[in-house]
Structures are given as C-alpha cells and as structure tokens.
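Researcher: Re-running this chain for the archive, since the previous output was lost when a drive failed. Same request as before.
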Amino acid sequence: RGRLTFAPGVTRAAIEVEIIDDGAYDLADESFAVVLDEPVGGASLGEIGRAVVVIESDDERRALVKQVASLMSLNVDAMQLAGASWREQLAEAVTFEPPRQATARALDGPLLGGASPPAALSLSCPFAFAGFALALPWRLLFALTPPPRVAGGWACFFVALVGIGVITALVGDLAAHMGCCLGMKPAVTAITFVALGTSLPDTFASRTAALKERHADSSIGNITGSNSVNVFLGLGLPWLAAALFWASPRGAAQEASWRDRYRGEAWYSEAMPVAFVVASGDLGFSVAVFTVLALVCLAVLVARRATVGGELGGGAASKYSTATLFTALWLGYIWLSIAKTEGDPRLPPPPPQPPPPG
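Model: Regenerated structure tokens:
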C-alpha cells in the first residue's frame, strides 16, 4: 500500500515498482495488480483504476536451465512442483485472512519500501469468518488432495476431478430436495436451484481467471468448455450406459416389463426395440429459448471486441451495461421456461401428440 501524490498543476505521475530477480527458474509468467482507490483532496478516478502488470519469464535463462537439465537428465518441471506439500495445503486450508478496508489513513505509508500502518478490519469480517467456518470441512477435505509433485500431477488431477464431481452431485441432489420441499416442479427446480448450484463453481473459476489472466480466453473458455462437458458427456455417457445395458442379456431379460410400462404411450409401437426412455416435456421450448439468448450473448461479445477492444473490461458504462444485459437474458430465460412449464396461455401450446396405436 502507498500514496500517490499529485502536486498542484501536475496531471501525470509514475509509480515505480522494483522487480527483484530472485534467480529462480520460473515455469510461467507472473503478474500483479496495481489498484488506485480512495482519492482524496477533490481528486477523482477515471474509468480505469486497475492495471495488471505481467512479468515475463526470462527466455534465455529458461533455455539455459532446460539445456543443463537435459544434459543432466533432470525433470525441471517436476523439481519446481516438488515445493508443494500436504502440510502447506493443510496450513492454507485452516488459515483465515480477515478482509481489511482500504482507507486514506491506511495509505499514509510510502509508495514502495517502508511499512504502512495496518488497515482496519472490514465491516464484512464477521460474515467472511462465518463463510470460512462453513467451508472449513470442505477446505480440509480438498487439502488432502495429492500435491502436483506426486505421480507427475496425474494423482492431483484425478482426485480433484472426482472430488468436484462428488460435490457437484451432492449440491444437485440437495437442490432437487429443496425444490421438492418448496412444492416446485422438477423442471423448474432443474433450471433454478440445480443449475445455480452446479454452475457457481464455474462462475467463481471464471472470475478468478478474469482477474489474473491478461486475456479473456481462460474465463470465457472455462464457461464454454464446462457447458460442452455438461452437454456431450453429461448427456452422452448416461445414454451410452443405458444403450449398453439394454443391449446386454440382463436388459433383454427385462423387455417384457419395459413394454408393459410404456405400452400406453403415444409413441410406443410393438415393433420398436427396447431403449432408454426419458420424457422430453418442455425441453424443446427451453432449448430454443436458450439457443436464441446464447446467440445474443455471442453477438454482444463480438460487438464488444469491435468497439471496446475486448470481451471483458472496458469503461464503467460498457461493463455495467453488459452485466445488466446478460443478467436480464438469464432472468428472461428463467421466466419463459417457468411460464411454459406452468402452462402460460400466452405461450404457444405443445405440438399435438399422435394417437396411440390401436
């Protein structure tokens, strides 16, 4: 923390940041943020009050280290990852860092060098501690994940993947129970509580990527990649498992009960083979609405790149207007889907079903 002072009549000032060469081998670029806030003395901040400074790794030193490592048959990446340990993970999991408020008095210290007086605790500290206490069991559980240095990182990857899958399934199940207790239809519960509970981890991951990365590729790619996994794997794997089951001798043994269950449906025919059946309901209408709104979002991102210069960031007007528009699109999707599920007469009725075979 520090204070940047403008003398009378001065409109430009420089912030000098000393980059210390620690002589260590870095795998990737490093970055830090410079944030301007709390203007005093009649000053005001413009549209841009935050800048991310990226420290690029020394290519010559990196090439030299890799050359030496190849001659000595060393794995530099594995050596770099060896610094992580379960003890450090557990210590980080149980450490609570209270939020502090940035005040002018807390910025009395010099810009660089020297100690500034500690800032006062933020008013949100009790709520932050309550959230920390609620998340502590999960933090401890995921702190047991193997460090990246174990098995070349694959153990960490698969254990974290399984843990995220279990937590997502648990959140989805609890959300479904909550909707049931509130008397909501399953379709409404799916697009509200279940969708929110399973998508919030992706939202926070995209937020972290947007704050730390220079470009929007990671944050937006995380969302599109997550939805691709949901559609292609979340739907494809159950269908594949069901297809293999009904093609197996065990599935063939239950053909009679399958036909008794679905014989009264309009689409049923005695000549059709047994298969995995899931009623679509209002899925067609919801998918159509989602597709239209998704195209609108993509068009807005393309327009922002042409006008603002990027998918994220920009001036306050562009940021808040885009956030408001995207939130309105989400609320519109929720409203239209719920109205269709509840049978709103203003929406088009479903297509007529063919009569059951005689």
